[in-house]
Amino acid sequence: MMGQQPILILKEGTKRERGKGAQSNNIAAAKAVAEAVRTTLGPRGMDKMLVDGMGDVVITNDGVTILKEVDVEHPAAKMVVEVAKTQDEECGDGTTTAVILSGELLKRSEELLEQNVHPTIITQGYRMAMEKAVTILSNLAEEVTENDTDALENIAITAMTGKSAGAVKEDLAKICVEGVVRVGETRDGVFDADKDYIQIEKKQGGSISDTELIKGVILDKERVHSGMPNSISDATIALVDTALEVKKTEVDAKIQIRDPTQLQAFLDEEEKMLKQMAQKVTDAGANVLICQKGIDDLAQHFLAKNGVFAIRRAKKSDMEKLSKATGARIVTSIDDLAAEDLGKAGSVEEVSIAGGKMTFVTKCASPKAVSILIRGGTEHVIDEIERAIHDAIGVVRSTLSEGHMTVGGGAAAMEISQGLRNYANEIGGREQMAIEAFALAVEVVPRTLAENAGMDPINTLIDMRKAHADGNKYHGLNAYDGKIDDMKAMNVLEPLKVGTQALRSATETAIMVLRIDDVIASKGGGAEAAAAAAAAAQGGMGGMGGMPGMM
Question: For 400-429, what is each residue's pLDDT tens digit?
Fold first, then answer.
């Protein structure tokens, strides 16, 4: 009887799926994520409206924003979402390309799995194809430096094409390029621009064309006392991260006062201390004080009498930007404040914008921190402009950090596809099938661009293949005219890093998903995930919870 008793290894309620069933479910979920963002690719891409449980609305065609907002449940689908997040952090753009390439690589691998090609063979072929693809793309690239302003602006324009910012993309591109070049520094021959020193402030009102670059820092603060001047020219700025208040004792203390004169003496001493603090700011030569902590009401009065413009409770990040922009040093004690710690700015002014007051620290001599003030008619417009500027800043940074650019419009993808087909013939063996599948998968970029532009994808691919076979390596899809054109001549440019990062991250994710042949899900996740994946294979967004309205 003992021999017939079942042996329980996994906890009761645990779901287990093995073999091809597990693989097909994972692939279906990944493909569903790719389908969700596919229609947003390119200059003719469409937007998505995302409504969360609270009723908040986001309207965007930015791939990573869509995938962040959507509540993805399937574990394999989450891996594809991570591809978009990594692409966004590394390059700032190319998130949709990376995601649809992941989905297409898995779709092509599914066809090989049905032909009984082992997953290990497919993954080996994919790795070889990815390395070759990166080499082909690098050979297509051209050098670019911070002095190539026109090329950098065209790269920024390409990143913003197809978004709501399209109408004013030339002006925004100029702002983004100038901002990145101003905050950037060359170290050991490598250009680096810290995007934390490009501050983005949003204020509703005006139009998108009112968006401007401020060569300095914008503080969402107002002066602490109405008696202070509301603008200062030729400002000398003190940055202090300690409070201008009377310090409290570290331990519990009790002061006994038996005489009213003692109380007055106590108050007089407190006033004297605060007056001395205000005087130290003036003695150091500062006429603007930015304090990270509080400023006592009495200290505010004395600062106002001395004609000092003061702001309190500034954010630490703003203090660091001010230090970079003005050259001031952040001091931790008011007693240590000296003339050499002060920074310079041509103007410090309190300005009323959209019903609120902000302080503009501008006309800095050589600021290593700048601000972009975004204006727009509605909150949704401003948010989408911010995403477009984020992408543009990201691609300009990526271009300058690596120093190379390639062409867009699907031209680079078609050149890679053609190169991989020739490479597959040289390799032979079963890996050849995987390399050919990779070559087909890469063509998803021009095919999707054609579909989104309302063109026939088959005819478009045939025309592009012929153009590249004839040696026209820069020919890609002109989505506006519906024909094949020279993308380099049309200034459709993008950073080399966007392409290489998309190839690498998409391939690594596809390989990871392919190597899974056993899914063991604890109680509460298995059945739902499997059902979601099956629904995803049928209807696009079925594999994602939280957004029932998007199909």
Answer: 888 899 998 899 999 999 999 999 988 878
Determine the pLDDT at residue 27: 86
User: Among all residues, which ones are annotated catalytic?
Assistant: 62, 95-96, 391
Alpha carbons within 13 angstroms on the beta-carbon side of residue 122 total: 26
Please tell me the distance from the alpha carbon of residue 34 to that of residue 42, in angstroms, as a whole number. 15
pLDDT at 515 over 80: yes
| Residue 20: predicted pLDDT | 74
What pTM was computed for the model? 0.79
What are the CA-CA distances from residue 298 to residues 191, 232, 277, 279, 397 (Å)? Answer: 47, 22, 11, 13, 46
Burial 3-21 (b: 16+ CB within 10 A, else e): eeeeeeeeeeeebebeeee
Spatial separation of the C-alpha atoms in residues 288 and 281, rounded to whole Å: 9
DSSP summary character for residue 328: P
Domains and CATH numbers, the chain: 11-143+406-545 (1.10.560.10), 145-215+369-402 (3.30.260.10), 217-248+257-366 (3.50.7.10)
Mean confidence (pLDDT) of the chain: 84
Which amino acid makes up residue 100?
Answer: I
- Cβ(536)–Cβ(31) below 8 Å: yes
Q: Please answer whether residues 378 and 204 qualify as being in contact, where contact means their C-beta atoms are separated by less than 8 angstroms.
A: yes
In this prediction, residue 24 has a pLDDT band, given cuts at 50, 70 and 90, of confident
- DSSP states along 204-224: EBS-GGG-EEESSEEES---S
Sign of CA dihedral 79, 81, 85, 90: positive
Please report which confidence band the pLDDT of residue 65 belongs to, taking 50, 70 and 90 as the band edges.
confident
Given a cut of 50, whether residue 472 has pLDDT beyond it is: yes
Which of 191, 149, 192 has its CA nearest to residue 174? 149
Sequence-ordered list of residues with C-beta below 8 angstroms from that of 357, at least 6 positions apart, any chain: 221, 222, 350, 351
